[in-house]
From TrEMBL:
Region forming the signal peptide: none
Swiss-Prot/TrEMBL keywords: Membrane, Transmembrane, Transmembrane helix
Domain of life: Bacteria
Family matches, as SUPFAM superfamilies: MFS general substrate transporter
Protein name listed in UniProt: MFS transporter
Chain segments annotated as coiled-coil in the UniProt record: none
Residue ranges of the TM segments: 16-39, 45-67, 79-98, 104-127, 171-190, 211-235, 247-267, 279-297, 303-324, 336-355, 367-389
Length: 398
């Protein structure tokens, strides 16, 4: 299973940007949960905590395609460094507002700034792979590797930030996330040898979201993001209701662990099934895997159920990025990939907000029904619009 991945690192400069990119996007699994834990500790309300986290996610979702367009136009380094430093300053401002008991609106205002200055670093990493391996069958393996790296982050990040916030200090998790963001992302940007060149924008080129296949996937990933956002918040409350709040990080690590295992397996195979069919089947498997979490009340059983639910995440995301790479012109690639992050980000915001409301009203176990309903919606979108993915380009195998 590991064999296909070894050859990826023979290209000069790859190890450097992979390591830096991994460290720089480590906070993507820590930021939302860290904010939820901090605000809930201060206010005692999961609804308020979810609303602030949702504000950050919405702001990030709006800004991601814009920052992607800037990267496509001016290059990664010229955009990444100033945005990252500004992001660090705004996150510090959010924590200071919370620390000194500033009015609630300041948390939302700084949350907007935090999200607006955050980068979809995974899109930039994948753009480098696309530049280095364009036209190669190894690009599928590279995207699979990055999905596995994302899941390692989602295994380690929630457990780390939850342990820091609950056992040391509510601010500790966000401080570690801030450090990883600045150090990793700046180090990534300074590695110019593997940076994709700036390609001139084609005359009359619009935005990738106007491409039917990209629009379809964006809607499906919006629904998937709602699952992620709601499961994150509801799982924290689920553990809290059972007097084991520090276990929330381990439960969420199980969710990501299932995706990690499936990502390794999926990337090691060569597929004859068309990308469009793989995408729809992965969505269906994701919904089926979520069914048990709506029926379980025991912490240990929930860990196993979340692992099962996570098994379809990586195949869906890997296929989505592969389809985007095929459907979007090279000069719009970073922006095109950012639309996946944007869609997931909007979904996470909706899920965090709705999950918080439903948890406060009906309890965590019942609130999981919302997550399952969003997964079914993603399947309906994928099945109903799958014809938009069946283009001559999308039929190519990877």
């Amino acid at each position: 299973m590991v064999g296909p991945y070894r050859g990826l690192f023979s290209t000069p400069g790859v190890k450097g940007f992979v390591v830096a990119g991994f460290l720089g996007r480590m906070p993507m699994s820590m930021l939302g949960i860290g904010i939820i834990l901090l605000i809930e500790a201060l206010t005692g309300s999961y609804a308020t905590a979810g609303a602030v986290a949702a504000t950050v996610s919405v702001s990030l979702a709006v800004a991601a395609p814009l920052s992607g367009r800037l990267v496509d136009r001016f290059g990664q380094a010229r955009v990444v460094v100033p945005l990252t430093l500004t992001h660090g300053a705004t996150l510090t401002g959010l924590m200071l507002c919370a620390r000194h008991g500033a009015p609630l609106w300041t948390l939302f205002a700084t949350g907007v700034a935090v999200g607006a200055t955050a980068l979809s670093l995974g899109s930039l990493v994948r753009a480098r792979w696309s530049h280095l391996l364009a036209g190669s069958g190894r690009l599928h393996t590279a995207f699979s590797f990055e999905s596995v790296a994302d899941e390692v982050i989602f295994v380690a990040g929630p457990a780390l930030v939850t342990a820091l916030a609950t056992m040391i200090n509510p601010y500790a998790g966000l401080i570690v996330a801030l450090t990883c963001t600045v150090v990793g992302t700046v180090a990534f940007a300074l590695q110019r040898g593997t940076e994709p060149p700036v390609r001139p924008r084609q005359a009359g080129a619009g935005t990738p979201i106007t491409i039917p296949g990209v629009a379809l996937m964006s809607c499906a990933f919006l629904a998937m993001g709602a699952v992620f956002g709601s499961v994150d918040l509801i799982t924290v409350a689920f553990a809290d209701e059972r007097g084991a709040k520090p276990m929330a990080g381990l439960l969420l690590a199980s969710f990501a662990g299932g995706s990690l295992v499936s990502g390794l397996w999926y990337g090691s195979r060569r597929w004859s099934i068309p990308l469009s069919s793989r995408f729809v089947r992965s969505l269906a498997a994701f919904a089926a895997g979520l069914t048990p979490i709506t029926l379980i009340g025991d912490l240990r059983l929930m860990a196993g159920a979340l692992f099962l639910a996570g098994l379809a995440i990586s195949p869906t995301i890997i296929t989505g990025y592969s389809l985007t790479e095929r459907l979007v012109p090279a000069g719009l690639l970073t922006e095109g990939m950012a639309w996946i992050s944007t869609s997931v980000g909007f979904g996470v915001a909706i899920g965090a907000w709705a999950g918080g409301r439903l948890t406060d009203m009906f309890g965590a176990s019942n609130a999981y029904g919302f997550s399952f309903a969003c997964a079914l919606l993603a399947v309906a979108i994928g099945v109903g619009g799958s014809a938009w993915l069946r283009t001559p380009v999308a039929r190519q195998q990877s």
